[in-house]
Structures are given as C-alpha cells and as structure tokens.
Design brief:
Shape of chain A: flat
Mean pLDDT of chain B: 91
Helix content of chain A: 10-25%
Largest sheet of chain B: 6 strands, antiparallel, barrel
Helix content of chain B: 10-25%
Number of strands of chain B: 28
Strand content of chain B: 25-35%
Number of strands of chain A: 30
Number of helices of chain A: 11
Low-confidence stretches of chain B: 1-21, 485-493
Structural class of chain A: alpha+beta
Strand order of the largest sheet of chain B: 1-2-3-6-5-4
Largest interface: A-B, 41 and 38 residues
Oligomer: heterodimer
C-alpha cells in the first residue's frame, strides 16, 4: 500500500554512536562507531528500535526523515534478550508532529511491508509475504522467542540497521536481520514487543520468564515405553536437566519427568503446543511471551506411571545469575591489576573479543567452561570465574610475562568466588608475599606485596592506565 | 707458490678418489625397501582396510639386520628389500619397530641377503656447519642417490610419525625427498643420522631432518632384551623460577638454580614421589638451572633429556626442596606413560562395538582424523585428555561415532559424537566394560552420555531382532572388536 507523502510521519531516523569496552584491555574502550536505523513511533512519544542498535551507546539522536531536524535521545527501557529498546527524544516537542503506530499481529501468508527512508524522507515500502512464525534463537544466544520471517527484496538505503514492518498501516515488528542472498528478513514480532512494552511500563523491568527446564523430544517409541508412557498417549517432553535454583527445580520437577501439558495446553512430543494465533508453536512462546514474571503455570507432569499437577512460578533469569555471563553490555568490565597481572571475570563477552569465529579462536578451555557451564558448575557454590587475562610486564612480574587466559582459584589461600574477593584475599598476605593459584600449570606463583605497592605508580605511568581496578559496575 | 701446486693436485686426487670410492662402498650397505600396507578404515572398522604401497631406504646396521624408519614399514603386510647389483627381491619382516622415535629394525628371511654386505658404523653428533651426505632411493630416479649438505641446527623437535613425541633432531640442508626415509646420513664414513623428515617447498626451503645417533643408540640398546619398551618420561610439568618473590617463597637462595614442579600426572612415573610445589634442584646429581636446563656432556640441554637417556627399570634421583626442606627422591621408570590416545596409531585394527546399528569407538587421533568431530566436548576430551587427566574417569573415551540407519535407531542420530558415561547405571570406563554391560539381558539398555541429555534407550528385543538385518544391509563382518586396549600399554611384556 503506497504511503502518502502528506501523512504525518510514523517513523523516525535513529542515529546511535556506540563505544564498546575492550575486554582484553578492560581499562579502556574501543573506537566509537555510528549506526543508523529507522525506528517506529509508539504512543507516548516513544520510539521503538532494536536493543543491538543501542548497546553500549554513548550518544543517541532522533532525526526527521528528510534530515532537517535532530534531537538527542535517551533510552527509556532496553532488553537484550528480546532485542528491543524504547527511546524518547530529549526535546519533548520533537515528536509532536509524528503519529504513533498501532501494533497488530500477522499470520503466515500475510503481505508485509518493510519500511525504509529515502534521503528526502519519503517512505520506501518493500512488500513481501510472511513465510514463517516460529520460535528461534535471539542474538544474545541465551533466549529463544517468537520471530516472523518474510521474504522481500530490499534495496540498499541508509539507516537500515533495523526497520519497521507494517501490515495494513499497523506495526507488526522490527526487521533485525536481513540476508541479501535469500532476501530473508527476521522480524521481532508484535507479541514480543507487546510483552516488552507492558513490562517496561512498570519499574523495575523484569523480562521474559522461563521455567529453567532443559528438555528434549520424546519421538523415540523406545524412550516412551521405557519411561512408561501409555501407548495411547502421545506427546510430552522429557526433562533432561533443571537449572540450579530455577522455578521448575523449586517446584519439585526432576530430570526424567515428562511434561504433558502447560496451563491446559497439551505439549506434543517435540515441545510444541497449539497456539490460538499461530498454530503449532514451541512451548517457549507460551511460557515466555504469553506470561509474565511471577505468573504461576499449572503443569501436568508424568513420573513413574503417575501424572500429577505441579505449579511452577515462572521467573525471568537475570544475566548476573550465570557463572559465565552471556553478555556484558552497558556495563564496564570489572578488572583488578595486581602488580601487572590483569585479573578479570570470565564472560562470553570476553571470549567474543577473539572475533567472529571466537568459538574456534578463543582459549579452548575457557570456551568449554562457557558452553557447558550449566552442567559443569552444578555442585559448586561458585559465583563467577576469575581469570588472569594477561600480564603487563613489570619488575615484580619477572618470569610471568607469558602467562595468560588462566583460571585463578585462590589468592593467599582464599578461594575467589568473584573478582570482588580479591581485595580481602590480598589482605591476607603471609611474609609479605602474595600466593596466586591457578587451576592448571604453573599452579602457584608468588608476588612480592611490597614491591607491587612500590611499583604501582610506575605501572600506571608506564602503561598509561586510567585506573588499576574497577570492581563495581 | 710453485711447490704448493703439486700438493694441491695431490689433495684433489685423493679427494676425488675418495668420492669415487665411497659410493662403491656404500652400495654394500644400502637396501631399497618396498612396503605393501593395509591401513584400517575407522569408518568401517569391521573391514581390514585399503591396501597401498610405499617405499624407502634401509641400511645394514649389523650382520643380519637392516635399519630404517618406522614410517617406511608401518602397517606392513608384505615387505621386500633389494640391494645394489642383485636382481633378487628378498622378503623381509619387522623385527622391532619404535613408533615413538620413528625407527625400525628388519630381518630378512633369506640370510644370503647379508652376504657381501657391510654394516655401517655409527658415529657421533656432527658439528654445526660440517658436511654430511644423504644416501638413499628417493623420487627422481631409480638408482642410488646422493645428496650433500651441511648441519644447520641441532634441536629438540616433534617427530611427526607419532606426532606426540619429541627428541633430538638434526636439521640439514641436503635435499631429503620421499623415498629417502630410513636412509643413512654419513660423515667421514660413519652414520651420523637417519634421514626422516623434510618440509615441502611451499613451507620452507632446504630443510631436512635426520634422527641423530643418540636416538639410534637408545633404540638399539632398548631392544637388547628382545622387547621395545619405549621412551621413559618423567610425566611432570615444571615452571622456571626466575621471579625473586617466587624464589623467596620457596626458600631458595638467589643462585639461578631450581625449577618448580607445576604438575604431576597421576598415571606417570613421578606420581606419589614428587608433588606440585616441589623444587627440583638436581637430577642425577646434575644441577638444574632456574630455566630448567642442565649441563650434560658439555652442552646445556633441557632437563627432559636426562629422562630421554633412561630405559625401563632405570631410575632418576631428584634432589628436591619441599616446604623448605631438602629431600632426595627416586623416580622409578617401571613403564612408559600408558596413555597414547593422542598419538598416531599403527599396526592396530580399530576396536569398536556395533550395537543396534550404533557404532561406538574409543576416541583416538586416528578416530578423530577419520570423522572430523564437530562437537566441542568431544574435541575437548581429545585435546585435554592428558593435561586435564580426563583419563581418570574415562581411560577410554567411548564415542558414538556413527549410526547405521535402521528403524531401530532412526530417532537416535542426535546422539552422534556423544561420549558414553554409563549404561543402566553402571559407569563405563572402557570398551570392554561396555561390551560386558551390553552382554547382559535387561528389558531396556539405557545409555547415558556425558552432559545433560535424555538417555539413549534401546529395547533388547528390538536390538536382537535388528541384528541380522543390519548386518546384511551394511555388509557387517563382525559386531565388535575389543582388541587389546589402545589406551594402556600392556605392562612391558
């Protein structure tokens, strides 16, 4: 449907300059870069863009379509799991002449229009069919939520980092990924946006809730017979693991249980239920997007021949609850430089510094710890993993220059559960020496506490360090 | 001026006649080796594998033995040797083979082969920059070839045949090409090395390697008792003590001596004798410098070289400092390090269990090379098997390497590359234990894999019903080969 030029604009350019922290030199940031997107106007003079656009933002700006007017902007709410952010202009009048978009859902087969902006401010709408509605992985890799997929032959235009998608003049989502080869657009859809907006309307923002169950399909009839499921029964997912302190674990669900239904919705053998709007869809959408943090879900659980009803109070999972956090955005990395030893907390953000194929290039032992953290750290009371990233050579670190990417277990006999334990551990030096222990060779090294203090200003001067520690965020 | 001239001529005459004399002599000591090999296919482990061929050079080391490289005669099914000016092809067999230092000794069925042959004497380590000559039968022709070069470097290097062993290696700039392997390198009429490795033209130029005489002598001495026991290893990691605070903490004076033990492998010879944190001050009376080097026969070498010279049943005496107190301990070499999982394996038929169309094989370098596993955990278990002592829980890492599709297992393909943890509640540590568990007759076989996953469940009745049809469909000759454990060496017998 062609857009009339006289219509009040429903979209606005959003220009964001980001500057990420350098996790390999955690006292500083990397070079800034700017990206431009088209944001959707929402009621209340708000602008919807993707979270990826505004991660580590240092300067945000709204710009009218033809470029004549600009105003700085700020973030009202952001959720990296669902890849959404809500912005407002610092000048409240700026969006007065804009009209908000209404949200609506779309179904497979609908014709969607992806909006871009010409330099004149005129909307370029490219149409294409919506091919898919499914639950898929979102960019932080830790959550899966509903996506719409559409095929449309987009032309290259400026400000396309994310783009609004409309159907019959209403907003159905934001394009966050586009593949030139297949013309495939990946869209964060209305149900996810509505959940985000509703959640963001109240402080604090909570997020998309989960059960904490890891489950697998029950397609194999042998597995079904072994578990004792009736041959007449079909469906159900097999619980393989419960995350520590998760809602499902607290509710008493155990590995080996089969979940037959959630909130009255039967779960099939692949973990799908029948959604009133989208048909067969992963139960993740039912739990995470059709419900909110704190809701109680009734689940039918099969165990050893009996079916019981279990109530699970679902909750969102805070990124801080991970031993190795999947992302560290809008927060500076913690670090502590001990005489030249750069101590940090291991996070996937640190591993991603090794590039696009970081899973092959980052230190393999650390990649292994990150990938399998949910089963490796079950029994430990471990908070975070402290690592020695690298050494800034100084006289007191003579002989230790080559050490890097090592897990630090103790300092002065004090087990490190997080980087914040380091100062108290250092207070327990014996005979003026710090004993630093690793989980692999060289196992134990010593540092002269007095020499470290004496050299501190030389260290700072030599390496031009703005600080030698950052323990809070 | 004029009286120097005849001297020069004489020297030249002597030189040329010696050059001419050498090739004639050397022909009495060389052999061309042809190997018909059969290499197993780890993807179809019930079949014997593809036959192939190769060749190299051998030389007479004693009145009735030829020496060559292990890689020339590995996986041999039929060996023949030929010598100069003799039309016959003689059948040979491997007498001893050392995969950890790429050397082998051959016997010849017909003792007349050795008539009119001349064993070569074994010399010492040639000086840097001195000239050496390489004799052999490389590509580029059919007859004896000689190339000459100088000694470029003497170093500890990885021997690519096993890929996990490092020994003294001499780099020379003489051309060493395919076919030269196993051939002698001479200086002043004596063997100073066995040609064995080179670099291709795109990587480096004029770089060839030979196995030096200490390694040759070590091999010959080891087999004196009729059995090759392999190199002995301290199996401990050390860290140089260069940092003053470290030295102070360990109660060491500022005398540039001592290295700290940073790891002791539980399966190694030093386990129970040496501890992490011990400082090694001397080894067999030789002071250890703070960078880990010792002075051995006038040369500064790594501490590991002392162990290099030991044999099974030998021991080393370590003077250590433990918590400030001096002690002397003995590390006895009762066996070679038992876990060779990461080494290239030869002369071995792959061990496996085929059950319900599921192929289970113990992880090894050969297996990983055949399948190119994608799974991060499987890769980790291979790479860190020794350094993280994964062999404690999994002396054999049993991997579901492939699935032969059948109605029985059609829902089980996502278990591929998984590592078996237990069957019906019993922890599985080796293939033999797995076979024993699968020989039982429960209603269900419940196989748990390492990491969180649903169990792999097979109904016994279905497995039995499927056995014949899977065999027929995939031309399976045998359901399992439990062989000799690829992991732990039989204790030296």
């Amino acid at each position: 449907m062609p857009v009339k030029a006289e219509d009040a604009p429903r979209v606005v350019r959003v220009n964001v300059t980001n500057q990420a922290w350098d996790f390999t030199r955690p006292w500083g940031k990397r070079a800034p870069f700017t990206r431009r997107a088209v944001g959707a106007i929402l009621p209340g003079k708000r602008v919807l863009v993707s979270a990826e656009l505004v991660g580590n933002a240092t300067y945000l700006e709204l710009e009218s379509g033809e470029g004549a007017n600009r105003t700085p902007a700020s973030i009202v709410a952001v959720d990296y799991d669902s890849n959404l952010a809500l912005l407002k202009g610092d000048d409240d009048e700026f969006l007065t002449s804009f009209k908000p978009l209404e949200l609506t859902e779309a179904k497979v087969g609908d014709t969607l229009a992806i909006w871009q902006l010409e330099t004149t401010g005129v909307v370029l709408a490219t149409q294409g069919p919506m091919t898919t509605a499914e639950v898929a992985r979102y960019p932080t890799d830790e959550s899966s939520l509903l996506v719409y997929r559409a095929t449309a032959a987009l032309q290259f235009r400026d400000s396309s980092f994310n783009l609004p998608v409309l159907k019959d003049g209403k907003l159905v989502g934001l394009v966050v990924r586009y593949d030139n080869a297949s013309n495939g657009a990946e869209i964060v859809p209305t149900p996810v946006i509505e959940h985000f907006l509703k959640d963001a309307a109240q402080q604090p923002y909570e997020g998309f809730p989960r059960t904490g169950m890891v489950f697998s399909n029950t397609r194999d009839p042998q597995l079904r017979r072994f578990v004792g499921l009736d041959a007449k029964q079909s469906g159900g997912v097999y619980v393989t693991d419960l995350l520590k302190n998760s809602p499902a674990e607290k509710a008493g669900i155990k590995p080996g249980d089969v979940i037959l239904s959630i909130d009255g919705n039967a779960v099939d053998q692949d973990g799908n239920y029948v959604d009133p709007t989208y048909g067969k869809l992963s139960l993740i959408h039912l739990v995470s997007t059709r419900h909110f943090d704190g809701d109680t879900l009734k689940m039918k659980v099969f165990r050893k021949g009996e079916t019981r009803e279990v109530e699970v109070k679902i909750a969102y999972r805070d990124v801080g609850s991970y031993v190795i956090e999947p992302y560290v955005i809008d927060r500076p990395p913690k670090f502590f430089i001990l005489g030249g030893l750069v101590l940090q907390e291991l996070s996937r953000q640190y591993l991603k510094e090794f590039g696009r194929d970081w899973e092959k290039r980052a230190p393999p032992e650390l990649v292994y710890l990150d990938r399998y953290q949910s089963d490796l750290f079950k029994k430990d009371e471990r908070g975070k993993i402290v690592i020695l990233g690298r050494v800034l050579p100084m006289p007191s670190t003579l002989g230790y220059e080559e050490l890097r990417h090592l897990v630090v277990t103790k300092i002065n006999g004090f087990a490190l559960l997080s980087l914040n334990d380091v100062p108290s551990a250092l207070a327990q030096a014996e005979n003026g020496l710090h004993k630093v222990e690793f989980d692999t060779d060289p196992r134990i090294i010593y540092l002269d506490a007095g020499a470290i203090s004496a050299e501190e200003s030389a260290l700072v001067r030599n390496y031009r360090l703005p600080a030698t520690q950052r323990l809070s965020e | 001026m004029s009286h120097r001239f005849p001297l020069l001529l004489l020297a030249l005459a002597l030189f040329t006649s010696e050059l001419q004399a050498q090739p004639l002599e050397i022909r009495k000591s060389l052999a061309r080796i042809t190997n018909t090999t059969q290499e197993p296919n780890y993807r179809i482990p019930w079949l014997p594998g593809a036959t192939g061929g190769g060749g190299g050079t051998g030389w007479v080391v004693s009145k009735d033995r030829l020496m060559t490289n292990a890689h020339v005669v590995s996986n041999a099914r039929f060996l023949t040797v030929e010598k100069e000016n003799d039309p016959k092809k003689y059948i040979a067999t491997v007498d001893h083979i050392a995969h950890d230092c790429d050397l082998a000794l051959l016997k010849v069925d017909d003792p007349s082969f050795f008539k009119n042959t001349k064993p070569l004497a074994i010399g010492g380590i040639p000086e840097l920059e001195s000239t050496v000559s390489v004799f052999g039968y490389p590509i580029g022709g059919e007859r004896l070839s000689v190339t000459q070069g100088i000694v470029s470097r003497v170093d500890f290097r990885t021997y690519s045949h096993s890929i996990v062993d490092s020994h003294l290696s001499i780099q020379i700039d003489a051309a060493i090409n395919p076919g030269n392997s196993g051939g002698p390198v001479l200086q002043n009429g004596k063997v100073v090395g066995v040609a064995f490795q080179g670099y291709t033209g795109d990587v480096a130029q004029n770089v060839g390697y030979m196995i030096p005489t200490p390694v040759i002598r070590h091999f010959l001495k080891d087999i004196e008792d009729g059995h090759y026991d392999r190199y002995m290893d301290l199996s401990l990691g050390t860290f140089p003590l260069l940092n003053p605070a470290q030295r102070k903490a360990l109660a060491l004076p500022d005398d540039d001596r001592g290295v700290m033990v940073s790891s002791v492998l539980s399966a190694g010879s030093a386990a129970g004798v040496v501890e992490v944190g011990d400082v090694i001050l001397s080894i067999d009376g030789l002071p250890v410098a703070s960078d880990g080097m010792v002075e051995l026969e006038g040369e500064r070498v790594q501490m590991a070289e002392v162990a290099e010279r030991k044999f099974r049943r030998d021991a080393v005496r370590l003077e250590i400092l433990r918590a400030g107190h001096r002690k002397t301990v003995q590390v006895k070499f009762d066996r070679a390090f038992p876990y060779t999982m990461q080494a290239n394996a030869y002369e071995q038929q792959p061990t496996f269990i085929l059950f319900g169309g599921l192929l289970f094989q113990p992880l090894s370098r050969n297996l990983a090379a055949a399948y190119q596993f994608q799974n991060l955990r499987t890769d980790y278990y291979f790479d860190f098997f020794i350094t993280r002592e994964l062999y404690d829980e999994h002396p054999e890492v049993i991997v579901l390497s492939s699935v032969l599709p059948d109605a029985l297992n059609t829902y089980l393909t996502d278990f591929r590359e998984g590592i078996v943890e237990s069957i019906n509640g019993t922890k599985i540590r080796t293939l033999k234990e797995m076979a024993a568990e699968l020989a039982k007759t429960p209603e269900f076989y419940v196989i748990e894999f390492v990491g969180a996953n649903r169990p792999l469940v097979l109904e016994r009745k279905a497995v039995e019903a499927a056995r014949e049809r899977i065999r027929k469909r995939y031309n399976v000759v045998e359901d399992q080969n439990l062989g000799e454990p690829a992991v732990a060496d039989a204790a030296g017998q």
